[in-house]
Predict the structure.
Amino acid sequence: MKVHSLLVLTAKELRDAWRNRWFLAFAGTFTVLALAMSWISVAGAAGTGFASLGRTAASLVSLVMLIVPLTGLVLGATAIAGERERGSLLYLMAQPVSAGEVVVAKFLGAAGALVTALLVGFGVAAVVISGEASAATIAGFLGYLGLAALVAAASVSLGLLLSALSPGSSLASGAALMTWLVLVLLGDLGLMGTSLVLRLDGRQLLTLALLNPLEEFKIGSLALLRGGLEVLGPGGQFADRALGPWLVPALAAGLLLWCLVPLTLAVLVVRRRGPL
């Protein structure tokens, strides 16, 4: 894999992402929502005189879990299938570049654009918060940003795999939407219903949660921002006891696997299938 070719292709993908009106709408919407939730947090803390950076970030966890994976999945899903439909993938693959360089560049471009939009939204949220944050709170917030970046990259990677497997952008976008719905439905409500029906213990419930990247992000974010998982009930307390200080690193490693495994499979599919 040639570094120069990868950098040129990544720069092209970044430009294409920022020219995408749908993506620009997401970036603007996310920033506005982050600003609104930060303002609400500040207004709610008027009686105490300051707003907590950690509390404001915690209020954005659900926003990230719903909007960011959907955007990443759709960005990834249209990246390969859309160019295959237009015939531009055939032209691109005719150049002296490998299938791995093309797919990895698409991943880096889409994930880079999505993470940049996240950082802008979170930056706006941090600016409007009054009061001073402790070093521990800032460290937790930075760790939270890292997890948000990982779940964004994981969603793009999964979308690229769907795109590589789909013959057209419409089918790829539909598959991305269905995947997002499955991940969301297999979250809190799905785990709660499954645990009641199958009578799962804490270990089994934690294992199911760790198979969902959105749940991994939520558990890790709450651990960093709240310092504990009591809010998640017995399952959260079991996770805290079972993994202890290794909880967040284990969740980050799980999200990293969600980035690398689908990306590797997408490279193999494109390499075997070609541009057609």
About this structure: Residues 3-34+60-117+131-273 form one domain.
